[in-house]
Give the backbone structure.
Amino acid sequence: MIKDIQEEILRLKEEKGVCILAHSYMSEEICEIADFVGDSYALSVKAKTAPEDTVIMCGVRFMAETVKMLSPEKKVYLANPAAGCPMAEQFDREVIAEVRRMYPDHAVVAYVNTTARLKTIADVCVTSSSAVKICRAIPQRNILFIPDINLGTYVKSQVPEKNIMLLSGGCPTHAKIERSDVIAAKRAHPNALFLVHPECRPEVVAYADYVGSTSGIMDYAEKSAAREFIIGTENSIVQHLQFRCHDKKFYPLSKDLVCHNMKITTLADVLNCLNGDGGEEIVMDEGLRSQAVKCIERMIHYGG
Ligand code: 13P
Ligand code: SF4
């Protein structure tokens, strides 16, 4: 059955000239039919270069919005309209505008997990894989980093030469993991390396053998000579790694590391979207788009 739906998706996608982009948190069966699977940064870069006129994003809303901002001439669909990222909605533009007025010499660095409206007030965007590099590279010494306090704390530790101010936003999925979860996982798997996403709390990241984005964690585990790994990010990454590396063992840091927003997109959603019977076309006011895209273009400029 899964194979039948996948074959129909591949046929329709070819016939209609559609590019399917999938974030690394998508299910294995969605990753299999995607033209490209990656972390937020790689998806942004790919969105700019994909030759197709229509793109279906299997991920969350800000990812589809990023594709639309970079390619306004394309039809861009979010495969499941209910897939949002709670962190992206945490701060209003007005609040950040007020903080900006209080600290006029600070560059506003926004995690890409933000709404298009919030991006209009940012100087530059970053993703988990590019945040350290970009904060080092921008000319300003003073930075207001929004909205993720955990990613911001990690960046601060890696870029001590910059003065980085944080606000207390973050990912509810990663932030619920505590030090005790790491201690329990390490006790259960004493020989495993611990790979973690920087959206986790600093006291969790402190135990890491590697800190990186979703793709960074996968690349590290695939290339490593080690045989066992505790995975400190959404549990889909555990499953993807189990498929890719049969000779290695992967353990979830916690059974609670599940992003329900990422999980909501199904193979049937992708098929319905291709059939014109589902998904949501991203429509964006040109004034908003042209203002918001500037910080994403700067991200790609500095991120390489
Ligand atoms: P990545 O950029 O690492 O793919 O992260 C996106 C995300 O939402 C992680 O929770
Ligand atoms: Fe947003 Fe967290 Fe889900 Fe990533 S894991 S999409 S940051 S809620």
About this structure: The two ends are 41 Å apart (CA to CA). DSSP finds 16 helices and 13 strands in the chain. The pocket of iron/sulfur cluster (ligand 2) is lined by residues 60, 85-87, 113, 171, 173-174, 199, 234, 259, 261-262 (CB under 6 Å). The first strand starts at residue 18 and ends at 23.
